[in-house]
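Tutorial, part two.
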Amino acid sequence: MATGGGEERASRLARRLAIRWPLAAIVVLIAFAGTIAALNSTLYSAQGFVGSYLAALDRGDVDAAVGTPGVRVPEDAAADLLSPAALGKLDDIRLVSESDEGAGVHLVEYEFKLDGATGRTAFEIEHLPNRFGLFQAWSFVTSPSGILEVTAENTTTFDANGIAVESSAGPSVSASYAVLTPGAFSLGHDSELLSAQPETVLVVTPGETVQAHVSARANEDFEALVQGELDGLLDGCTDQTVLHPTGCPFGETITNRLEGVPEWSMVEYPDVEIIPGPTPGTWQVPPTVGTAHLVVGVRSLFDGSLSTFDEDVQFSVSYLITIEPGGRVDIIGQ
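Running the prediction step on this input gives:
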């Protein structure tokens, strides 16, 4: 009797397990299918694909951004700006719209802030064969990259978002740099002798080329340096006790005979202003007026009378300036 009852209970348990296992498998499959559907509508969706690319830009992950399917970096442009430090700050990323253009192509538009400025970019992407036959895959149709053409006027260097860039094209010649879009680039120059006020340039449209200029100008230190050199030269000229000091911009012609030695002094030094020179990379001090003073005794050859020449003598200076490698400044009179 006991043996028969045990066999019956075992048989009932086996039947219940036989029913529960298929049900459990069905539940797992439904959950798995739901997970796939949820991932395909979020992470692996068209907007999720573009959002992942923008998130890579936001955290400064250049490798992840460049590694996104469909991102192609222009080969004919320098890669100096493809670094985390050179990327502009991307904030407040927000989906604006997504539209199905047909043939597996979607147009996804995002809004964002680049260094505080609001911008929008529409990304055209296409559907690829699903990964493992389950997960949606996408690729950019137009690569979200562009070219920033920078002309560093009167210098070969400029700053981009705080990093120093050396232009291989030379001063005042446009050079091309590959960038990822959307991007904001604060371009300027700050060196020992030159400066340029930073200006922000936006590159927001995939495939576009944007031109920018960095206009370096002589800073106060540069002008003070040349002013000091000029003042020292003129002070040396006043030490010469001749009517025409050698290597100096001023002098005076007196036809009568001198009594005593000429005594020079400076009344007003020329006020130095430095402007770009006639060729890229050169600078010049345009014609600038100064005033010296000469005192010397004069005896007339006509009647022998004695008088004193005591007058201001105006003069003009003009210089061509070059900055040599290593920072040495050459000043040449014109």
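The chain has two domains: 19-216, 220-333. In part three we will examine how such features are distributed along the chain.
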